[in-house]
Amino acid sequence: xxxxxxxxxxxxxxxxxxxxxxxxxxxxxRYRVLERIAALDRHFNADELYLEMNQAGERVSRATVYSxxxxxxKCNILVKHxxxxxxxxxxxxxxxxxxxxxxxxxxxxxxxxxxxxIDAIRDRVAADLGFxxxxxxLQIFAVCPNPLTCxxxxxE
Length: 156
Ligand SMILES: [Zn+2]
Ligand SMILES: [Zn+2]
Known about the structure:
- The protein is of the alpha+beta class.
- It folds into 2 domains: 8-92, Winged helix-like DNA-binding domain superfamily/Winged helix DNA-binding domain (Arc Repressor Mutant, subunit A); 100-154, Dna Ligase, domain 1 (2-Layer Sandwich).
- The chain has helices at residues 8-22, 28-38, 46-55, 62-74, 116-128, 151-154; strands at residues 44-45, 78-81, 89-92, 100-104, 110-113, 139-142.
- A hairpin with a 5-residue loop joins strand 4 (100-104) and strand 5.
- The longest helix has 15 residues, at 8-22.
- One zinc ion (ZN) binds next to helix 6.
């Protein structure tokens, strides 16, 4: 599935507008966190991001990484996922709009997919209940098609 090119300048602008509007401090560290995220084309959790940034020589505290992820989620630059049994994962909303996730219940492998018939169900359900649909999040719990390639078995 092709992902969209990330427009870091537009993301920075969106973030700056949000911080100003909500009167949050506009610190350089927060933009460095965003810049690092924009370079990742995948899901990540807060600790992975913190470790990556520190290994790359960025002097950003764990607390700053966590609070920045919170702010980026509040202004819809990031989507936060709570996959079963995992710490919260994040990804850029612009990365792959409206996709959903299938997760292997054995090994935790996550596969991303896009199926527009799910959008149609979302729109119909919301309209039937008199709401305006904005977005949705669907997780399908499954098991790997081949037990031999399931990472759960591979790790035994
Ligand atoms: Zn995803
Ligand atoms: Zn599996």
